[in-house]
Specification:
By secondary structure, the protein is an alpha/beta fold. The protein is 37% helix and 15% strand. The protein is built from 15 helices and twelve strands. 47% of the residues are buried. Bound molecules: pyridoxal-5'-phosphate (PLP).
Length: 378
């Protein structure tokens, strides 16, 4: 089946008895044992739930992995994944990762003796130089957030594999519709499902897909032990949302490209970061590993004083955190999503008070552009 059809058919129920098309919500905490020592395969919902199982198997299929796991948030997923590592283990993480990922590694897992080196993932030599005998994982996002840098996934895998180091890709921005890192050889994909996968700014959830069953089972052990699972209702909502992923992603992509090209010509805009633009330095690598550019872009205005005006004056576009929903959202990463990245790192990276991040929704593209035009011209 073509990926587009697989996406639509995620969770189509095969219940012979009722013929239901939609997977039921199994709102049950516990399950009856047929007899002593027997199980239906479901004992208690923290361990496994039939609705969650459909979602977990579905995302594993779309990413091309052997085991999927669903969590109460993207951060719960990332936390469970990090728990497979031990005191003294070393991680290499891209420095412009999502601020919450930075925070949980730098401020929480450091208390448990995990060490980390933050690098510019678009410079492979920085990753190579950071490898130590204790390095257990390289964690990347591509495109990065909010600077839209491109990390060469295959090149990272090539340097990681000989040392037995895991390559972990946060695939939140592109989703399996545009990019499937496991097919390139990555070990684990993580998602904030709160973004494009759920797609309607109404759900918080997280997913993990492991390429290899043994590694997946190790993460599943942590999921069951620590309990950060996605509930049956939210699992069902996520299944329903994923069904329209392909058409949503196509529209996010075409809208974002149109907005990026328009912003490039605006006199108050000094820089636009979007991998679909011809002058993007990572475009050639991106085109090798992904089939679309997604709906995220960032831009820099010529004066920080313009920023509060834009955030106040946008009407169709909402000034709110998060991304990946059908409604366009605008954020100021320096004070919102990336506030936990140390200020010297932010300044060095260019996450300044003039940098705005736009999650381009699926509205009419002219309406989005008109809204920006009126907000930028005040
Ligand atoms: C790229 C990326 N990864 C992970 C997360 C964390 O996900 P959640 O907010 O669902 O916990 C986010 C949230 O914004 C994100 O943008």
């Amino acid at each position: 089946m073509n990926l587009h059809s697989k996406i639509v058919h995620i969770g189509v129920c095969t219940d012979e008895k009722t013929g239901a098309i939609s997977t039921p919500i199994y709102q049950s905490a516990t399950f009856r044992h047929p007899a002593l020592g027997q199980s239906t395969g479901f004992d208690y919902t923290r361990s496994q739930n039939p609705t969650r199982k459909v979602l977990e198997e579905g995302i594993a299929t779309l990413e091309g992995g052997s085991l999927g796991l669903a969590f109460a948030s993207g951060m719960a997923a990332i936390t469970a994944l990090l728990m497979i590592y031990k005191t003294g283990d070393h991680l290499i993480v891209i420095e412009d990762c999502y601020g919450g990922t930075y925070r949980v590694i730098d401020k929480v897992f450091n208390n448990f003796g995990l060490t980390v080196t933050f690098v510019d993932g678009s410079h492979l030599n920085e990753i190579v130089d950071a490898i130590t005998p204790s390095t257990k994982a390289i964690i990347v996002e591509t495109p990065t957030n909010p600077l839209m840098k491109i990390v060469d996934i295959s090149a990272v895998i090539k340097v990681a594999q000989p040392h037995g180091i895991h390559t972990i890709v946060d695939n939140t921005f592109l989703t399996p519709y545009f990019q499937r890192p496991l097919e390139l050889g990555a070990d684990v994909v993580i998602h904030s499902g709160s973004k494009y996968l759920s797609g309607h700014n109404d759900l918080v959830c997280g997913l993990i897909v492991a390429k290899d069953l043994e590694l997946g089972e190790r993460i599943r052990y942590i999921q069951n032990s620590t309990g950060g699972i996605l509930g049956p209702n939210d699992s069902w909502l996520l299944i329903r949302s994923i069904k329209t992923l392909a058409i949503r992603m196509e529209k996010h992509n075409s809208n974002a490209l149109a907005v990026a090209k328009w912003l490039q010509k605006h006199p108050r805009v000094v820089k636009v970061y979007y991998p679909g633009l011809d002058d993007h330095p990572g475009k050639a690598i991106h085109d090798r590993q992904a089939s679309g550019y997604g709906g995220m872009l960032s831009f820099v205005v010529d004066d920080a004083k313009l920023v509060p005006t834009i955030l106040r004056e946008v009407k169709l576009i909402r000034f709110a955190e998060s991304l990946g929903g059908v409604e366009s959202l605008i954020t100021l990463p320096a004070v919102q999503t990336h506030a936990d990245v140390p200020v010297d790192v932010r300044n060095r990276l260019g996450i300044s008070g003039c940098l705005l991040r736009l999650s381009v929704g699926i509205e009419n593209e002219d309406d989005i552009i008109q809204d920006l035009e009126q907000a930028l011209s005040l």
